[in-house]
């Protein structure tokens, strides 16, 4: 029983790491490719891209209401 709980926790942590990598790197690459050239902004690091992704999820990702009318 303990073994399966540990495996589930490790699997969940692995999934979180995979999601961070899948969303962090593309955001960083796109930002560093477009923003300095178009708007003269600085290049960002991987962790800054992860922070931008988290911030945009908080601000815009939960905008939908659970009280949907049919």
Considering the chains and any ligands shown, give keywords for the structure:
70 residues, mainly alpha, 2 helices, 77% helix
Structure description:
This protein is mostly helical and 70 residues long. The mean pLDDT is 86. The protein is built from 2 helices and no strands. It has a domain at 2-47. The N and C termini lie far apart (44 Å). The longest helix has 38 residues, at 2-39.
Number of helices: 2
Helix content: over 70%
Unreliable runs: none
SSE class:
mainly alpha
Could you spell the SSE succession in H and E letters? HH
- The radius of gyration over CA amounts to 17 Å
Summarize the structure.
The chain has two helices and no strands. It has helices at residues 2-39, 46-61. The longest helix is centred in the N-terminal third of the chain and has 38 residues, at 2-39.
Helix-strand blueprint:
Blueprint: H1 2-39, H2 46-61
């Amino acid at each position: 029983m303990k073994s399966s709980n540990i495996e589930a926790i490790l699997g969940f942590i692995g999934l979180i790491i995979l999601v961070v990598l899948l969303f962090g790197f593309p955001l960083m690459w796109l930002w560093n490719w477009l923003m300095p050239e178009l708007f003269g902004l600085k290049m960002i690091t991987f962790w800054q891209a992860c922070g931008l992704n988290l911030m945009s999820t908080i601000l815009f990702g939960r905008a939908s209401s659970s009280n949907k009318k049919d």
